[in-house]
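call fold(seq) -> tokens
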Amino acid sequence: MTEITKLPVSIERFVLHWGEMGGFWGVNRSVAQIHAFLMTADRPVTAENVAVALEMARSNVSTSLKELQSWNLIRRVPIRGDRRDHFEAETDVWEVASRIAAGRKAKEIDPALETLRVCVAEAETDPTVHPVALKRLKEMLEFTETLDRWYGQITTVARPKLMALLKLGARIAALIPGGK
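ret:
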């Protein structure tokens, strides 16, 4: 198997940028860079290949690969005649987006909902909580519950329809009464 030694400029630019974007999303830069690298690889790659190509410590690569597997964004692939682990990324962008959204919902939205529900329940029975604070907690809960319901609904929409909705953008708002 040919070892990867030098990345094409466009791939390196993408890997570096994806790593930067990961930082904005709360994902470790190395994890995001490895994900980008595997998404653009034309074949399954060993952890050693990743470490060499991205000039990363093998331990960092190993930890990052485990995290990517936990998000179900990459998978281990057996290669006949090679005992090393090889990895490939999910390359369907819709599937990647879906898995990331599901992971973020589970790690962020679900715990926020649980906490807000408890806070509202406690605040409603606590006479020391100012009505303004209670109102704002309830508004945040309502907003978060709406996001949660929207996520549940949007995950059932077929991809072609979802793509059509995305392409419509703000024009879809014209169909909703009461707004510009």
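The chain has two domains: 9-89, 93-170.
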